[in-house]
Amino acid sequence: MSCKTDNEKNKILLESNNLSNKFYEKEISQLRTYFENKSIEQPNAFKEDYDKIKIIEKSIIVINGLKTVSDKKGGIRKLKKKVQELIEINTLTFGCLKINEKDEFLFDSVLENDCNRILYRVYKEFYRLNYAVF
Predict the structure, then answer these.
(1) CA gap 127, 119 in Å, rounded
(2) pTM of the predicted model, to two decimals?
């Protein structure tokens, strides 16, 4: 009975992650375009922030390229530190760090959602800081 309940919870979590990932990907795409354009229009004002965003995006690409759950968890821990150093956001939560390493499919789903959520938050933070100024 407990197995069925866990499977049902996992199915709901996977569906929820899928929907939120679609939202994040759309929003991130729009924000990325905004920063790309602004870094060309006003390079002195936006270059530093956009460079920080690109560092975080590259880190996420590296994490997604890792083979094992254990390696990905290590990459996430490094990403968390990097985001905290670059942007000074100290309230990052990564649900994938709590997922059992044996359930790789569920882990990858939560990892994708975590990365999209953090990247969205980074873009929104820079947008908020820059929009208030310009």
Answers:
(1) 12
(2) 0.84
